[in-house]
Design goal:
Largest sheet: 5 strands, parallel
Number of domains: 3
Number of helices: 16
Order of helices and strands: HHHHHHHHHHHEEEEEHEEHEHEHEHE
Structural class: alpha/beta
Distance between the termini: 38 Å
Number of strands: 11
Strand order of the largest sheet: 9-8-7-10-11
């Protein structure tokens, strides 16, 4: 095993995550203020229900554009906040969008129904059949209702990822329909040239961000680097490492702890992308991922042929040394969650303690590498084995292994149950929140 010395950035005083999060909040608040000003300039009108409906529609359009920004996979945001948190925010903004658009449809229809002395449903049919853009808006709302329904936890758990993702793609159809509705009947498009320019600019930035982050950057990077499988190395009966090489990999902005969406271009798997972390720090010559068999897709990895073309989207994730706040570090891994932790160990140069939680020694992936690397770097390695209960990383046990845990940055990666338990333990031991770093794979369409 070869390690490459790197100049490690010092712990940052200003947290990149806080800067990015504050910037997003400020961006949303500033745009909400602009939308309100343009709404008031256009003249709210005398009917309260119609006024509330129009304002809800404008805020709904703003939230829809903001949602697109959250899942655009722009590197600056992703590397500071992380795809998992951006996806979570996208989900909650989606529920806010659902309620604002329902309010828009309800208040507008009730307002016009009252003015015409008609029933709600008669007025809705009248608007849909006589007013340009309204039918498109109804279709867009119906799509958003379906997407919101399948994104609810009880439904999401029952759907295959591919099914959920396919349904989620209809969000883009809803966006186009909603925007054409806004252009057709939105008062800000007809009464103010400044507001018209603002909305065109807003939608241009939102859709342009998605196109840049989801299409342009991945295609450009893959054309530039020409990735191919260079070696397939079985690590155990159910774990395999894939080595990937390409051109100018020293120019690929990947960091230890990050992951890619890997697509191996074979005739039966080219359409399937899976998230795997780098299991070794990038050295400018090759990338390595290590995967545990969890289904047909991962089982097929050990049968990949050397030379297979690879399309990789990324790098993604904020689980990197960019977010360190202390000089010394504790790394906690469970199971195959060791892969990004192993890469981080290679990338850290101050005193490191690594705790690897597995059921048995046979489950410890890359253990020989970890021992060699820990010895070379002067790190402490603790392999903790045994059943899940009793908790061998409970507060007392963890404090015994790492007495100065509250003075360290802590990076945690493992199965959800273990990760949640360790996070509770860290909080019980008084480890400040800014020193705790974890990330979950969460993909959004």
């Amino acid at each position: 095993m070869t390690t490459v010395e790197r100049v490690q950035p010092p712990p940052t005083a200003i947290r990149p995550k806080v800067v990015a999060r504050t910037g997003l909040y400020a961006l949303l608040a500033a745009n909400a203020a602009v939308v309100t000003v343009f709404f008031l300039q256009a003249g709210p009108g005398s009917d309260t229900l119609i006024m509330l409906g129009r304002l809800a529609g404008l805020y709904g359009a703003l939230l829809m554009a903001f949602q697109l920004l959250l899942v655009a996979r722009l590197p600056w945001l992703d590397h500071r906040i992380g795809m998992d948190r951006l996806t979570s925010w996208h989900r909650w903004v989606g529920f806010g969008l659902l309620w604002t658009l329902l309010s828009h449809a309800l208040f507008i229809t009730l307002g016009y129904a009252g003015a015409a002395s008609a029933s709600f449903w008669d007025e809705l049919v009248e608007l849909a059949t006589t007013t340009e853009g309204v039918l498109r808006a109804i279709v867009a709302l119906a799509l958003i209702l379906v997407i919101g329904g399948v994104s609810a936890r009880f439904a999401r758990r029952r759907l295959a990822y591919e099914t959920w993702h396919f349904i989620h793609l209809y969000t883009y159809v809803a966006v186009v329909l909603a925007f054409t509705h806004q252009v057709a009947v939105g008062t800000t498009f007809t009464t103010s040239s400044a507001a018209t320019a603002y909305w065109w600019g807003l939608w241009g930035v939102a859709l342009g961000s998605v196109f840049l982050g989801r299409v342009v950057l991945p295609v450009w990077r893959n054309l530039r680097h020409q990735l191919r499988v260079s070696a397939v190395v079985p690590e155990s009966d159910n774990v395999v490492s894939i080595y990937v090489t390409g051109r100018d990999l020293d120019l690929l902005p990947a960091r230890a702890g990050q992951f890619f969406l890997w697509r191996f271009l074979t005739k039966d798997r080219w359409w399937q992308a899976n998230p795997f972390s780098l299991s070794a720090a990038p050295d400018g010559n090759r990338l390595r991922l290590t995967a545990k068999t969890a289904g047909e897709g991962t089982a097929a990895l050990r049968h990949l042929k050397v030379g297979t073309r690879v399309f990789a989207e990324g790098p993604y994730g904020a689980f990197t040394t960019l977010h360190r706040t202390r000089s010394e570090t504790l790394l906690v891994a469970g199971g195959v969650g060791i892969t990004p932790i192993r890469a981080l160990l290679e990338d850290l140069h101050d005193h490191v303690v690594l705790i690897y939680r597995v059921a048995t020694d046979r489950d410890a992936v890359l253990l020989d590498e970890l021992r060699e690397l820990a010895h070379a770097k002067g790190a402490e390695l603790h392999v903790v084995t045994g059943p899940a209960t009793p908790d061998k990383l409970a507060p007392r046990e963890l404090a015994r292994l790492v007495p100065d845990v509250a003075e360290r940055d802590v990076f945690v990666c493992g199965p959800p149950a273990m990760t949640s338990a360790v996070l509770r333990t860290l909080r019980d031991l008084g480890v400040p929140g800014p020193q705790i770093h974890f990330e979950r794979f969460s993909l959004a369409g």
